[in-house]
């Protein structure tokens, strides 16, 4: 009897937990709306969102993507509008019908599509719904509802535009619909940051995080236990070469392992490409994988030997199979309970991979990059270049971009890229070389080559091309690539050009040559086929948007690796794909599939010049045995650096890594067993890497060492609130003038506690709660301010009498 009652209670709890909702308020500013005219039609633009293009001939209204994070076992069940504030925009507009995107081919254009008469004569608002649910996807265990918002809608019969300035939607979901994918703390941390720049409800990210998984405890059927966040997947021939990269990543705090493509053949799968993917899925769940660098053998045939996957893309009258590394990045989607967690990219089991009908979700679960190698020499060139880039870059070139336009297809490129890159606050700067338009430098292949050699960190290019050259407007060819000698000023390039990324069609396409050449480029992102002009422009623009400084309005975080930035762009475009059941035709999916990264996805993208040095402090000599070991990181002005990646390593005895806290510190609990050397490595975006050593001596044989601070620091007063006396600690990393002053709430000075030159060291002072005249201060809130030449900090204090 008792048992039955309990079951009933449990069942009720489970039922109530299953359904949930998210109320999301959205705002759209009329100032972000602009209207221009083309061919007598009004072209509506809202904040550079793409316009509706699913059905040519329908009104081309702006489409705002909406991504919402939901619980890790949930699927969206619906969306409804709770309230909407709409205004009718003055005047009448005959709005531009959606057009077919013209292919990116010389002389190609798409015929003008006339307005669909049925829609354009209707008295009903179009689209009918202001919000539309697309599907639910999975990104590293997070579940994401994908929606579209139509902030501007159209009433064709009266030619009126209705603009939603405020909108509240209720999104409903059901839990226990899929098995939540367990993820490691670090995997969750990476995807958390991606979601911050993607979802409309960032405050829900933490509570909807996937369940934790521990690594290093249990192996899988094919893999030993371990924690590897970066794998280099390569043929046995290059295994020894790439050990140097794996060693560096490991020392950096991104534990890495070289794994042979031949060894993936134990996995089930119909060909090499599929078995490689099975390995990555296994490495994700067994080792906690975050980055995959595929250094593949450059083989074009036979099909059975290919170490890449061609995936299906279709748009308008065109279709093709493109080599697509998203196949290796999107490893998981939510699956119904009690079925295999693995899923493949050919769910409907025909001959085509990556169709909408295969019900994949396209959200990157790991970050992927690659190179294609003919021989050991190319492997070695690429690696030497990458290690040089990360260890000894020129400090001055990173915030410089060259914007190259061989053929101006549309005004969008001029406006958008110009705004996004050129108008970011200094020191970021860019030069334009456009073939058409007045007031800027005319481009050429030679000028481009020379500019890269002179030191520009980034290139965005638009122009025609082929497998072996790009037109700007003369051909930049493989031989120009060979003339790049920008030794430690390597360039990251993203291009809108046809075919230079077609590594499956030539022994040496331009992109692979750029990646393995001695100088030139370190990250190369180029089309493997032709593409769609304005879609590709939008894609490139987003790439910059996803890693430029916050000044550009981009919610990017401190840590952006190239593979992560590219994945963020691809995630961002998913709401433009067709919904399952709506066919395959999509220029957005095509562009996303064809733009692969030639490069290591774990290469960090600096966005500031000059790249700064870091001040890193830790004991230089320690004894064997269990102990806490603290590393402090400051920048070149000694201000604490938060979120720097710190790694401590002593072969076989100590290995730990993590990010510094807001005071620039991280403490590891270590246990070195034998005398020897421990390595400390610190990497941080926009800073030169730091490497130092610690001598480990036998316990009981050391002289005590006087610790010295490496950064400024001001502690919170203790006690606080206080009655009679409180103590304030502070630290000075260099001899400097120090002033500490207490102010009241109105900003009036109460007491000067310190105004003196101080040596390097740790200091402590007491305040008795009296002002400069010796009068006892009343109860209330006070501030104390620490000032030196380089560093200012303020904290508060409460007196309770
Ligand atoms: Ca298929
Ligand atoms: Ca996915
Ligand atoms: Ca090759």
Describe this structure in words.
It contains 14 helices and 38 strands. The protein is an alpha+beta fold. The strands form eleven sheets. Strands 17-16-18-21-22-23 form a six-stranded mixed beta sheet, with helices on both faces. A five-stranded mixed beta sheet has the order 25-31-30-27-28, with no helix packed on it. Strands 1, 5, 8 and 9 form a four-stranded antiparallel beta sheet that branches. Helix 4 (239-252) runs parallel beside helix 7 (376-391). The protein is globular. Among the domains are: 2-183, Immunoglobulin-like (Sandwich); 393-587, Rossmann fold, CATH 3.40.50.1460; 615-697, Immunoglobulin-like (Sandwich); 713-799, Immunoglobulin-like (Sandwich), CATH 2.60.40.4070. Strand 6 (131-139) and strand 7 (142-149) form a beta hairpin.
The SS-based structural class is: alpha+beta
pLDDT < 50 stretches: 1-15
CATH T-level fold name of the domain at 393-587: Rossmann fold
Q: Look at the structure and give the mean pLDDT.
A: 90
Percent of residues in beta strands?
25-35%
**Global outline:** globular
N- and C-termini, Cα separation: 61 Å
- Helical proportion, percent range: 10-25%
Q: How many strand elements?
A: 38
Can you tell me the CATH class of the domain at 393-587? Alpha Beta
Bound molecules: calcium ion
| Rg from alpha-carbon coordinates | 29 Å
CATH architecture grouping of the domain at 393-587: 3-Layer(aba) Sandwich
Strand order of the largest sheet: 17-16-18-21-22-23
Largest sheet: 6 strands, mixed
């Amino acid at each position: 009897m008792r048992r039955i009652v309990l079951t009933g209670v449990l069942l009720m709890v489970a039922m109530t937990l299953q359904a949930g909702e998210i109320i999301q308020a959205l705002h759209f500013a009329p100032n972000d709306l602009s209207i221009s005219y083309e061919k007598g039609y009004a072209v509506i633009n809202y904040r550079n969102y793409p316009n509706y293009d699913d059905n040519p001939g329908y009104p081309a209204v702006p489409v705002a993507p909406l991504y919402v994070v939901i619980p890790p076992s949930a699927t969206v069940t619906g969306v409804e509008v709770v309230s909407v504030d709409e205004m009718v925009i003055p005047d009448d507009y005959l709005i531009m019908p959606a057009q077919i995107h013209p292919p990116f081919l010389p002389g190609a254009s798409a015929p003008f599509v006339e307005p669909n008469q049925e829609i354009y004569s209707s008295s009903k608002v179009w689209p009918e719904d202001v919000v539309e649910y697309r599907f639910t996807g999975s990104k590293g265990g997070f579940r994401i509802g994908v929606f579209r918002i139509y902030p501007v809608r159209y009433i064709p019969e009266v030619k009126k535009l209705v603009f939603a300035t405020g909108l509240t939607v209720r999104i409903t979901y059901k839990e226990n619909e899929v098995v939540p994918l367990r993820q490691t703390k670090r995997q969750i941390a990476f995807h958390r940051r991606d979601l911050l720049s993607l979802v409309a409800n960032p405050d829900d990210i933490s509570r909807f995080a996937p369940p934790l998984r521990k690594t290093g405890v249990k192996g899988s059927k094919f893999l030993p236990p371990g924690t590897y966040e970066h794998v280099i997947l390569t043929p046995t021939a290059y295994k020894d070469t790439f050990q140097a990269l794996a060693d560096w990543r490991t020392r950096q705090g991104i534990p890495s392992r070289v794994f042979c493509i031949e060894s993936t053949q134990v996995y089930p799968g119909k060909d090499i490409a599929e078995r490689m993917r099975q390995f990555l899925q296994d490495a994700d769940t067994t080792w906690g994988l975050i980055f995959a660098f595929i250094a593949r053998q450059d083989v074009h045939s036979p099909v059975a030997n290919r170490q890449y996957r061609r995936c299906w893309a279709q748009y308008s009258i065109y279709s093709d199979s493109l080599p697509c590394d998203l196949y290796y990045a999107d490893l998981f989607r939510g699956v119904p309970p009690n079925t295999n967690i693995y899923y493949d990219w050919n769910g409907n089991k025909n001959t085509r991979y990556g169709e909408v009908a295969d019900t994949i979700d396209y959200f990157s679960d790991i970050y992927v990059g690659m190179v294609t190698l003919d021989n050991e020499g190319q492997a070695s060139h690429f690696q030497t270049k990458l290690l040089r880039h990360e260890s000894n870059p020129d400090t001055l070139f990173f915030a410089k971009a060259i914007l190259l336009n061989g053929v101006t297809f549309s005004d969008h490129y001029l406006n958008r890229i110009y705004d996004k890159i050129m108008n970011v606050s200094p020191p970021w700067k860019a030069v334009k070389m456009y073939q058409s338009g007045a007031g800027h430098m005319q481009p050429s292949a030679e000028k481009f080559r020379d500019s890269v050699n002179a030191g520009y960190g980034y290139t965005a290019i638009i122009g025609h091309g082929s497998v072996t050259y790009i037109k700007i407007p003369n051909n930049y060819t493989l031989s120009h690539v060979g003339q790049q000698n920008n030794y430690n000023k390597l360039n990251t390039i993203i291009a809108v050009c046809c075919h230079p990324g077609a590594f499956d069609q030539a022994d040496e396409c331009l992109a692979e040559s750029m990646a393995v050449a001695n100088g030139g480029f370190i990250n190369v992102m180029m089309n493997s086929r032709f593409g769609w002009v304005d879609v590709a422009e939008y894609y490139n623009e987003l790439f910059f948007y996803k890693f430029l400084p916050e000044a550009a309005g981009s919610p990017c975080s401190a840590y952006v690796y190239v593979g992560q930035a590219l994945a963020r762009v691809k995630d961002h475009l998913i709401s433009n794909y067709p919904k399952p059941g709506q066919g395959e035709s999509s220029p957005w999916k095509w562009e996303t599939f064809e733009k692969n990264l030639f490069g290591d996805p774990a290469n960090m993208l600096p966005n500031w010049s000059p790249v700064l040095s870091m001040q890193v402090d830790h004991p230089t000599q320690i004894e064997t045995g269990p102990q806490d070991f603290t590393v402090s990181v400051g920048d070149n002005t000694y201000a604490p650096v938060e979120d720097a990646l710190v790694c401590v390593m002593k072969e076989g005895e100590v290995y730990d890594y993590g990010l510094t806290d807001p005071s620039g510190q991280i403490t590891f609990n270590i246990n070195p067993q034998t005398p020897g050397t421990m390595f400390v490595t610190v990497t941080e975006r926009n800073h030169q890497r730091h490497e130092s050593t610690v001598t480990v001596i036998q316990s009981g044989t050391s002289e005590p060492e006087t610790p010295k601070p490496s950064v400024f620091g001001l502690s919170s007063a203790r006690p606080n609130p206080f009655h009679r006396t409180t103590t304030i600690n502070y630290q000075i990393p260099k001899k400097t003038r120090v002033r500490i002053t207490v102010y009241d709430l109105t900003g009036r000075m109460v007491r000067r506690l310190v105004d003196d030159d101080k040596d390097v060291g740790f200091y402590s002072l007491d305040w008795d709660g009296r002002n400069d005249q010796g009068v006892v201060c009343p109860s209330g809130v006070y501030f104390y301010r620490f000032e030196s030449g380089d560093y200012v900090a303020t904290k508060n204090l409460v007196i309770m009498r």
